[in-house]
Amino acid sequence: MPLFGQLDLATIAPRLPTLPDLDTRAWVLPGAETMQLLMETSRTAADPLLPKAMHPAVPSYLAFSFLRCPESPVGPFTLATVRLGSRAGAHPRGLVLGAYASTQEAADGLRRGWGIPAQAATVRLRRHHDRISGEVIREGATVLDCALVNPEAISGSDVQLINWVTMANAPLDGTTAPLLIQVDPKYTFHKAERGRPEVRVFDAAAWNAGPLRPTNPIVATIAMVDTDLPRIRFVMDPVKPVYQGTRRIRESRTDE
Fold this sequence. Notes:
Blueprint (H helix, E strand, L loop, with lengths): L26 E14 L2 H4 L8 E2 L4 E9 L7 E12 L2 E11 L2 H11 L3 E3 L1 E6 L3 E8 L2 E14 L9 E9 L2 E9 L4 E15 L14 E13 L4 E3 L5 H4 E3 L8
Parallel strand pairs: 5-6, 5-10
Antiparallel strand pairs: 1-3, 1-13, 2-4, 3-4, 4-5, 7-8, 8-9, 9-12, 10-11, 11-14, 12-13, 14-15
């Protein structure tokens, strides 16, 4: 029997972002730097945070991600997200639990465009001699302090960056209601490194992560890429299995 998430949708619906429509324009993000740290976490704590439409990853894991963009339609910004590893049918996905952006313009655009629950905060991605550190500070308190330790060069083909799923209130068939929204960036790799993930500070409440805590390290990667945030192609009913509740919004990432 397949395993499914156990989220009670009523507990989070009031705080979900609201999209004005599903006609989001793409953001082209050239010359970006993206860091992803994967850490195992507790299955018993993870399943109640996962929508019933999705399957838990085995083992359960958290993805701590930073994306520094020197160019975008809203100017330079850095985005930090915490995602819960999962699957939509057979496809691996990272459910966005929380997000912070370094500018208010970026936070507003991410919320309205893709339902990414971004708030404005201080978000830093910095390189040191033996590590690349990521830090998020909200209202004077550090809510995430993590690092990729001892980076070593690898091929970009060795990096797996898992597509995102966000949950937001969005209009469909004349009704605005919670939907799962697929966010599937493309990546052109220019440089990549791999190392050991380390999480020193993680305020789970600040990331809507309930009782989740990072446990065993899996892997950390960082890469220089050309990427994007594409137009929305697929949405899913959060309470139906994806083979029943998936809707195609447009045929391709560029369709008008």
